[in-house]
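Hi V.,

You were right to ask for the full record rather than a summary. Here it is.
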Amino acid sequence: MLFCGVPYAMQDELVAIKGIKDGLFISLSPSEEWLAITSELATRIDEKSSFYAGANVTVDLGQRAVPKYQLTSLKALLERRDMSLNIVLSDSQTSIDSANALDLRTSTAIATPGREPNETLPIDPEEEGTPGVMIRRTLRSGRTIHSKGHVVVYGDVNPGAEIIANGDIFIWGRLRGTVHAGANGDENAIVCALDMTPSQLRIAGYITISPPEKRRNITPEIALIRDQQIIVEAWQKR
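Predicted structure:
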């Protein structure tokens, strides 16, 4: 993947700005003072205001916990410069909750050196007004993903990991953790997996677990509500 070059001082690690296909990707230091970071960001943008004007922005907060008032100030900082904050990448539930409160698209993503900016960007939803999140890695024990829309995992969901989504959940791998689709009460929600052996599976207010001895002829399956119960059947083209 090619990125258009946006020069910045290598010694300054408070802010990193890169051009990506859909706009700008901004990484913020996960440890420095918030005021120092936002001041540096404003200075950097103002130096090339005409270049950045009109850009859609994806911001990577890493593991920093950003409360709503701080994220609101960042959003306002960008809007005053004719820029739009569209997507927030974070591994902090506090930051994800703040973004959701501001109706921003979100995705969990650990900020590591050299990570490609759109490695885990949310997918474009097919349903109008329904956000979606794509996780391109295995979810290990202890990880919890929340989404107001659909969730797609390109990897496994290990025992001890949990996904809670208002929409559908698609696992392109083994589902062995806990999932809750239609968490807002949507009984039309579904759960799909290439290997369906969840610790616990919920759809709306219905709940089920895998039988103690599941057949081992692994095949993609879909779980849905039918006749007021969760059923699991072969995942076929619908």
